[in-house]
Amino acid sequence: MEFEEKPEGSGSLVDENQLDLGEKHQANGKPGASGKAKLSARQQANAKCDLPRKSLNRYTWQEIQRHNQKTDQWLVINRKVYDVTGWADRHPGGRQVLKHYAGEDATDVFRAMHPDPDIVRLYLKPLLIGELAPEEPNQERNKNSRLVEDFQELRRTLETLNMFNASLGFFFLHLAQILILEALAWVIVWHFGSGWLITIFISFLLTVAQAQGSFLQHDMGHLSIFKKSKWNRLMQKFVMGHLKGLSSKWWNNRHFQHHVKTNIYPKDPDIDIRPLFVIGDLQAVEYGKNRIKFFDYEKQHLIFCLVSPFVTPVYFNLGSILEMCPRRHWEDIAWAISFYIRYFITFGPFYGIFGTMVLIYLVKILESPWIAYVTQMSHISMKISKEENRDWFSSQVLATCNVEHSFFNDWFTGHVNFQIEHHLFPTMPRHNFHKVAPLVKSLCAKHGLPYVKKPMLKAFGDILRALKKYGALWKEAYCTHPEI
Q1: Rounded to an integer, what distance in angstroms lies between the CA atom of residue 225 and that of residue 221?
Q2: Is 106 helix (H, G, I), strand (E, B) or coil?
Q3: 377 pLDDT above the threshold of 90
Q4: How many angstroms separate the most distant Cα atoms in the chain?
Q5: Which comes out higher in pLDDT, residue 92 or 397?
Q6: What φ, ψ does residue 57 adopt, rounded to 5°?
Q7: Angle, nearest 10°, between helix axes 168-192 and 196-221?
Q8: CA 451/CA 356 separation, integer angstroms
Q9: Which three-class secondary structure state does DSSP give residue 454?
Q10: What is the per-residue pLDDT for 483?
Q11: Alpha-carbon distance 278 to 147, whole Å?
Q12: What pLDDT is recorded for position 445?
């Protein structure tokens, strides 16, 4: 198919509250006095400022799918085609997220990850290069269009029911819980001294505060609490940086990739942690056939038990530092430093500098297995595959399972025991997951998809059983492909 040369977008990231649009992007097609128009984001969102239909190039899915390289990235949102190549490095969610969807329909993932799409669409306008040809379906032909439509209808229903509106009181109580535990730990040391029993006791209090802080910053990272994104981001920096000593940018860049391509190898960083573990049938067989053996992966389920206490103090800390320092994320660095200053001010007089560092990392070691098991229980035993370009609903349901609902389970897991609902609707406040779960389960039943729910202890055990299975697959492939 022949088509005219595409117009080039500016690719510039503009302020959320004010957008500069060039002459060719104005609604009336006429330049202002300076060749640019400045309108508020809300005015632009509500105005009919799309390019005239006759001026848009038209593309087939076959043409769009060719633009899936790092230096050539197109994607489709609501039948509009965007060239995001030059803007990828400035994408607030990280450049990898856009790369993972290059050449694909991103309508549902775009809606899932952005709580206010009207604002975000304004950022896309300079990147608009065309639309799908009239004869093309709304999504790639391999996708179940009926399922896609049913899911979009479900989302509209949930929006009507205000399921995306947060209860600020709910999240205030969770923040208060963290601050009270931190303060209580200091009061106990101040009143009773820093003996071993007291130190062990306050370590458990601080561990609970740290784990609950992880869940709360997760909510903020998904912009699911405040209506204004800037307040979510500010509070995430406070919780992740000041209360936990880690980089929010590092967390978001990794975590958003996990969300948009859950259990897709190698796009999901949560399942690509080679050479420490081989996760999924594909990795295990690949390592076995190539006779790669950093250690005996047949015993990796035991290794997981041994290394789980060091995920937070080693893996998270190193990842955070390697993100902040080389990229000069000064704001994240300042927040992380404030965490250590706070600990030295509050606990330094009782433990000294070395003792305070020991306390910090003792708490991180205690927190680490809690976070490791909770974050892995819903994915590692589910479907893991290479890119299959499935629709959003089925890709998330097949790669995710839930853990049974109870007051304790909800609290202990930060409500990610409703992982299916969380992955389908990442910006939904977690206190609404249990309300929408029956509707999601019903849609799964309608389209013949499994809706997996487990007791929490079984979910924890399935982590080890899955790792053992992958290790056995590695061993079999390793032994049947002898070294030449």
Answers
A1: 9
A2: coil
A3: yes
A4: 80
A5: 397
A6: -70, 155
A7: 160
A8: 46
A9: strand
A10: 63
A11: 33
A12: 98
Cα gap 348→108, rounded to integer Å: 50
369-to-207, 318, 348, 381, 455 alpha-carbon distances in Å: 11, 17, 26, 18, 18
Q: How far apart are CA 169 and CA 177, in angstroms?
A: 12
| DSSP notation for 275-313 | TT---SHHHHHHHHHTT--SS-GGGHHHHHHHHGGGIII
8 A C-beta contact, residue 112 and residue 424: yes
81: three-class secondary structure by DSSP: strand
Could you tell me the two tokens for 167? 């209860």
Using alpha carbons, list the distances in angstroms from residue 165 to 157, 214, 433.
13, 21, 12
* Residue 158, Cβ density class (10 Å: 0-12 exposed, 13-18 middle, ≥19 buried): buried
Helix (H, G, I), strand (E, B) or coil at 44: helix
Side chain identity at residue 357, one-letter code: M
Residues 6+ apart with CB under 8 A from 101: 75, 109, 260
Percent of the chain's residues with pLDDT above 70: 88
Letter for the amino acid at 28?
N
Closest residue by Cα to residue 73 from 62, 90, 85: 85
Spatial separation of the C-alpha atoms in residues 199 and 207, rounded to whole Å: 12
Rounded CA-CA distance 80/82 in Å is 7
SS (H, E, C) 370-409: HHHHHHHCCCCCCCCECCCCCCHHHHHHHCCCEECCCHHH
Distances (CA, A) of 232 to 173, 229, 451: 16, 5, 31
For the chain, what is the mean pLDDT? Answer: 89
Residue 425's CB: how many other CB atoms inside 10 A?
25
Q: Is 70 exceeded by the pLDDT of residue 261?
A: yes
Average pLDDT over residues 87-109: 91
Q: Which of 152, 380, 144 is nearest to 278 (CA)?
A: 380
* Cα 271 from Cα 274, distance rounded (Å): 8
Q: What are phi and psi of 156, to 5 degrees?
A: -60, -40
- Rounded to 10 deg, the angle between the 168-192 and 330-376 helix axes is 100
Pinpoint the alpha helices (H) of 114-195: 117-124, 145-160, 168-192
The span from the CA of 423 to the CA of 261, in Å, is 10
DSSP-assigned beta bridge partners for residue 130 = 57, 81
Q: Are 153 and 442 in contact (CB under 8 A)?
A: no
Who contacts 38 (Cβ-Cβ below 8 Å, separation ≥6)?
18, 19, 20
Confidence (pLDDT) at 432: 98
Name the percent of the chain in helix, strand, coil, to the closest 5: 60, 5, 30
**pLDDT tens for each residue of 66-86:** 999 989 999 999 999 999 999
